[in-house]
Amino acid sequence: MEIGQKLREAREEQNLSLESLQETTKIQKRYLEAIEQGNFKILPGTFYARAFIKEYATAVGLDPNTLLEEYKAELPQTEEESTAQYSHIHRSRKDNQPAKNTTVFSFIPTVIVVLLVIGIFFVVWLFLQGSFSEESTKPAEKDDNEVIRDTDDGSQENEQTEDDGSGQDNEAGDESGSEDENADSQAEQSDDPQPVLTVEEEGTGSPPESTLTLENAVDDVQVTIEANGDSWLDVENGDGEVLFSNPVTPEDSPIELDLSSFDRVWFNVGSAPALDITIDGVPLEYPVNPEEEVFQKIWINLNKASEQSS
């Protein structure tokens, strides 16, 4: 018996239709039909076959791991190969970076010492220059309020004029006004809450389904999706309305969606290592290690700052 036939028989024993199974697994009906027919070529990527079959098996009451082990010769193996290739590329990038950075870092201590010595000499020079300048100007100092007048006999006499200090008061007032304006500006910036993405519940099982909350979200929440490899993405609102459902490739990136009118959204990620998601300027970090679970489901609650303040 083929794996598709076994899954179909299990579904019929549970009296489940493909439509109800689609609602449970969030896998489109045409992909469920393809699995039952053993036609894995029309799936969004052959490496999704295992993830979709595990979801199907769980929904109809079968052990997904036992089922995959029994029919492993029948299933495509590209998921493991893709994961291995991604891990190899990831390790290669890490291995190459130290070789490039070692040469650069070897010069840094020398540069720092040279700059430090130059800085010390410069500070000493400035100090000496200031001392010489102060000593040379002392004999020429005279009171700003002193006025020299000629007398009738040809001699000179000095008079002290009175200073009401209005000029200094004005300067002090200007400086205090500038400081007050800067303090008000900094206070306004600090009072503006920043969006924060927190994990409410880390998903378990396969695939894991996690719940996150975006606090202090802006009114016009935007999500940006960028792919560094082939992946699949479904996005729905809290009422089950489909906002996006397509394969995602680097050529399609970036993809932007407007979530302004929703309080809750759901992401069905086919290949987490290949997909970067940013919500309201905050990068989404997958609650479960994407290298261990490439297929993940995530709920995100959007708590907007304007609603919280009101």
TrEMBL record:
Tree of life domain: Bacteria
Keyword annotations of the record: Membrane, Transmembrane, Transmembrane helix
A GO MF term: DNA binding
Extent of Acidic residues compositional bias: 153-183
Transmembrane region(s): 103-128
Protein name, as recorded: Protein RodZ, contains Xre-like HTH and DUF4115 domains
Region span, Disordered: 74-95, 135-213
All residue ranges annotated as the Cytoskeleton protein RodZ-like C-terminal domain in the record: 224-290
Basic and acidic residues composition-biased segments: 135-152
